[in-house]
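Researcher: Structure for this, please.
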Amino acid sequence: MAGRMKHRTAFVLQGGGALGAYQAGAACRLAEAGVLPDLVAGISIGAINAALIAGNPPERRADRLTRFWGRATSATGWPGLSALGTGLALTAGAPGFFAPRFPPAPFALAGDPTRASYYDTAPLRRTLEDLVDFDLLNDGPVRLVVGATCVATGNFIWFDSAEQRIGPEHIMASGALPPGFAAVEIDGQFYWDGGLVSNTPLARVIETRADPAPLVIWQVDLFSARGPVPHSVWQIEAREKDIRFSSRTRAITNRMRATHDLAAALQAHVADLPEALKADPAIAPLLAAQANGPVTLIHLIYRAKPYETGAKDYDFSHAAMQAHWHAGAADVVRCLTHPAMKAHDTAVAGMRILDLTDDADPKEKRDDRG
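Model: Predicted structure, token format:
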């Protein structure tokens, strides 16, 4: 990029189950290009990828991501025959991630929310403890943010290494999607997957930035707002899921841009504002220097293949994982080599959203698509 000011870098990783391999491939390719995050935020599978990044030094991250996705996938299945991979995940689980609970959930004794699920995620805890250095995650240079949903209140909760110690249970809580996975208990509260409320941690990253330094956000999403009109029941399920999850991301992105633009407009006219208005609790935060520091949001979006169905996010076959991984790496290369990326100046005021991996005519693009 053309910006000369030193900027901060954040990775924002959406939830999406087995599609998370796309994020891993993108993160490894970004590291090869020297793009390293100061902050990593994730929801669900994005939280797991984020922990693997924040909980390892740069030279070890690719190995740990590779090992996790190698453990979590099976050798069965070929791209285009996703039923094999999804069927195996449903019946046998995903190695190093989750296993069928015995006795099956409908026959298990009631009374323990941490066992009320079809699958047991104890393998995930062991994998996280093996592949993530939680001391480095909490005390190292990369801030980690993951989101979960409080079962009792329905409220969205942030677990932030800048504010508390993060352990395997916080990562697992972010990805505890019911009824497949059970609630995770933390300090007497029970938590489910953060994606039940919001599938992107973008708002947290922007709203809690510590200084006005230019911020470059690599937002890696796993569901695309754009797609073909479905012609079969299987395609309908996939398209519905894409729309449902991408719409939430788009809404939050639009809100963040509107708030940022408002802060920039107020800052431009701060000298004309009455002192009473400057002190107003609703206005004062928007006048803080970090509220309108330059933001560049680079949007990487996994775009499903024609053969993928609504089960694509739980196709844990090794072949599907590799296809997703390579798609993430390829999109990073396309983005980094795009003329618009090379010409973009990160130090220019305002919030800009770049989606440079879509094949659509740039003149027809909307930067709020998600």
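Researcher: Any notable elements?
Model: Confidence is low (pLDDT under 50) at residues 360-370. The radius of gyration is 21 Å.
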